Each structure stands twice: as structure tokens, then as C-alpha cells.
Amino acid sequence: MGITARLNTQTLTPEQFASVADIAEREAGLVISPGKLALVQARLAKRMKAQNIENVGSYIDLLTSSGGSAERQSMIAALTTNVTAFFREAHHFDALRTTALPPLLQHARSGGAVRIWSAGCSTGEEAYSIAMTLHELDPAAGRYDLRILASDISPNVLTTGRAGRYMAEDVAGVPPELLRRHFQRSEDGQSYQILPHLRELVRFRRLNLMSDWPMRKGFDIIFCRNVVIYFSREVQLRLWARFSGLLSADGWLFLGHSERLGGAAAGDFRSGCITGYQKTQGNGMARAVKERFENGSA
Description:
Blueprint: H1 3-8, H2 14-28, H3 37-51, H4 56-64, H5 69-79, H6 90-109, E1 114-119, H7 125-137, E2 146-152, H8 155-163, E3 165-167, H9 176-182, E4 183-185, E5 191-194, H10 196-199, E6 202-206, E7 219-224, H11 233-246, E8 247-255, E9 269-273, E10 276-279, H12 284-294
Parallel strand pairs: 1-2, 1-7, 2-6, 7-8
Antiparallel strand pairs: 3-5, 4-5, 8-10, 9-10
Helix pairs in contact: 2-4, 2-5, 3-5, 6-7
């Protein structure tokens, strides 16, 4: 019987589950309810197999050891479900195309900088959907000072995003004309490669939203969709405030279909579309960051 099978025939003790849940909250702000026991058990079994550890207690000892940082991050990545798709929640991309992006592209054409952040980007479909929307509006987008940051806590999903290669079923929702313009189909028809003109717009970086953020540059648009559902309400409110501080005075914040902006930061925004919010009042820090960025001093 393999490691995975052995673990799946057992149940984590309440103490073991509490230890794992505590690590997940401290490391990444995740809140794991007891109802997620079966999911946690299955995900831990995979990590234990990868580490060739058969005993749950020994695995938790590794997680809590001074040398367990890398495995803690791998466990967090395993616990978060990376569900994504090209043009998921299509109304957001309608708002991008018709409202959010046209003035930003005009700003870019006149020499200004435009920055977009896909936070919790998973395997990259969201970031590349943004890039396709940009390119469809202006095929010269790659010539401007315009970039998309795609970040995630999991190095594995970032590897997929950087590679830009997706199976045929992954691109099923991409309109045929966009497939022709932005993907290279493999000879056997089983996979599709994102073409360089889109890949050059996107930069993939590992980032834990609960940690310090290395970016000193403001953003015009932030996507953070179906990510905060894992976080406590307190952590969500802190995250909204941080996003607000980093957005330009009229920037956009897009959340997932089950997420709602709240707390003090909600007063900085108006509803622009379903779970899409536009900044309505200037934030001193955001303006200063944006000015330093465009002046080349950030």
C-alpha cells in the first residue's frame, strides 16, 4: 500500500488538523474550516508522497521545523484550489474592453505607463485573457510602456503560466478568431502555445499576498478574483485597503463573483460592473507612487 493510500485510510486527529490549519493561516491567511477535513487529508497525502514521509506526525514536524519553510509553501499551494479559465466571468472583460482600457491605452500611446496586476493568477489564463483584450483593442500594445504582473503563491502554477502552453480543453472557451490570432496549435491538435506578442506583455512572479509586497509602482487595474474566499474577513479588509493604496486615483479593482468589497476601503470606490469597482477618490500614497513611477524614479 502506497503512502497516499495509507493516509487516506486514516483520519487526521483534531490536533493534527488544527496544526495544519494554524500553519495555513499564519503563512498565507487561509481559513480552513473542519468541514474541509477530507480535502486537507487528500492534499497532504500528495505532499507526504512527494517528501517520502509516511507518518502524519513526522510531516507536521517537518512543517513546523526551522528548515520547513519551503515545504510550508508547497503545502499552502497544494491546499489552494487553482480553478481558472480563459475569459472567466466574461462581464469583467466586457468592462475592460469598453470602459477601463480605452483611456489607459490612450495614456500609453502618449508615452504614459500602464500597469495591470493579476493577483492570484493561477496558471495564467486570466493574465493572458487581459493581454488578449488589450491586443484586440490595439495590436501595437506591446510597443508601449504597458505590462501585466501575474503573481501567485504557487511556483508550480507559475511555471505553467510562463510556459504559456495549454491543452485543447483549456482553450475551449476562447473564441476561434482569438485562437487563430494569439495561439499556435500543435501538430497533433492537443495543445496550444501562447504567441510571443502576448507572452511579452506578462511577467510572472511568486508572491504571497500576506507578505510584504516588493512593488513600489502604482497599478491602474488589479484583478484579484476568487482568491479572498480563502481568507478571514479581517484579512480581506486589510487586503482591500492595500489594493486601494496601490491603485491610481481612477483605477479599477475586479473581484470574484462571490466576493464583495467592504470595510473602510469601500468608500474609495464606486460600482462599475458586477464585482468590478472603480476608484472614486484620489489616495495620496497612490498618486505619489504613480508619479514616481512615471517619472522613472520608482
